TrEMBL record:
Keyword Aminoacyl-tRNA synthetase: no
UniProt entry keywords in alphabetical sequence: Membrane, Transmembrane, Transmembrane helix, Transport
GO CC term, one of those recorded: plasma membrane
Protein name according to UniProt: Glycerol transport system permease protein
UniProt organism field: Candidatus Planktophila limnetica
Pfam families per record: BPD_transp_1 (PF00528)
Family: Belongs to the binding-protein-dependent transport system permease family.
Main location class: membrane
InterPro entries in UniProt: MetI-like, MetI-like_sf, Sugar_ABC_transporter
Annotated ranges, domain ABC transmembrane type-1: 66-276
Amino acid sequence: MMKTRNNKAWFLVLPVILVVSFTALIPLMTVANYAIQDIFSPDNRLFVGMKWFYDITNDTLIIDAFKRSFQFSIQALLIQIPLGIAIARIMPKSGWKASAALVAVSIPLIIPFNVIGSTWLIFSRKDIGLGGFLLNKLFDFDFTSDPKDGWGLILAVDVWHWTPLVALLVYAGLRSIPEAYYQAAAIDGASTFAIFRYVELPKLRRVLLIALLLRFMDSFMIYTEPFVITGGGPGDATTFASILLTNIAVGQFDVGRAGAYSLIFFLLIQIMSFIFYTVLTLQDREEETKTK
């Protein structure tokens, strides 16, 4: 007996298509439309083709901003991933202490970005902030005039804000490891480092992959904290790619150039995330190939 084909189920996918179109495709196509025009007013625009893309890829200010963003992301990852693992490993495993630790670690994640920026701005000022006052007892610290201090402060804020995310992901990964693995390691007389190296780290590979991708993409797009604390300065020390994009789009109202900049920014993040994912999952694919 032939079954009657019924494609009405596709209508269930329609809401998802509409939402994705509204939130992603339409804005992206709008930006792409701006990127090939020089817009003087809503009724006065000139088609320029790929001119903005050529200008941006040869603009040293933009290239330097991308280099700063990439350098900042690498530094943030080198600190946050090991620190997040260390925090997760010392957190209590059960009981009320575990619940209290989870709440305490999560606090930086629930604070709004602009509040974090304003808080650290006041806290780090050497004239009115406690942190700035104490640091100046040890060495000369002024993030408003010293580029290294400004960079270090933004990095410290990002570490304080986002290391808890890594810690929570790793903590969840650790709790999912069966107790039998630890019992077997104890019978073999494995050291704490050996347990971490040969039991926990392999089991955490996928969790760390998620943490790396999330933190890389987010730190590469950092905006609010440096905008509030340093405004991109001193000089251009903390003018990251996202801040420069805002300056072009809003400050200079150069919409066409900003559109091309946005597309290149978007493409760079996709490419680097793909490279991260490909490199980090290389071992998994090799193991799957061997088992076939």
